[in-house]
């Protein structure tokens, strides 16, 4: 994937985002989706694809056999071991969604970047940490550790 996109002139920062997004989509498909094909025989799998469309958008897709719930961002607790994948995708991507077909296949598609040939293609990466990081403890109103220690005298 990397080499093909690089040869196509896609910015390295966009490729990095695409690889992370693809990893999250594949993890979600393996954890939550049914395999494609005959699941009873064990011949099922998932399908991944990426392309730069004619308007210059890099699109990544993963298709599986559907699952018990619809893909949606979660609100995991701070100590949860998962549930952040679609939030990461939302933070990195320009757009994403879910497409169902009549055979039961479900495809999650992501527009990684609207214009991979734009010299500012990594613009979303610049503020990624700000968008996904919790505020510093000192910035949380009503949480004053000094008062808690005063009571220990």
UniProtKB/TrEMBL annotation:
Pfam families xrefs: HATPase_c_2 (PF13581)
Source organism, top-level taxon: Bacteria
Ranges where the Histidine kinase/HSP90-like ATPase domain occurs: 3-106
UniProt keyword list: Kinase, Serine/threonine-protein kinase, Transferase
InterPro entries listed in its UniProt record: Anti-sigma-factor_SerPK, HATPase_C_sf, HATPase_dom
Full protein name: Histidine kinase/HSP90-like ATPase domain-containing protein
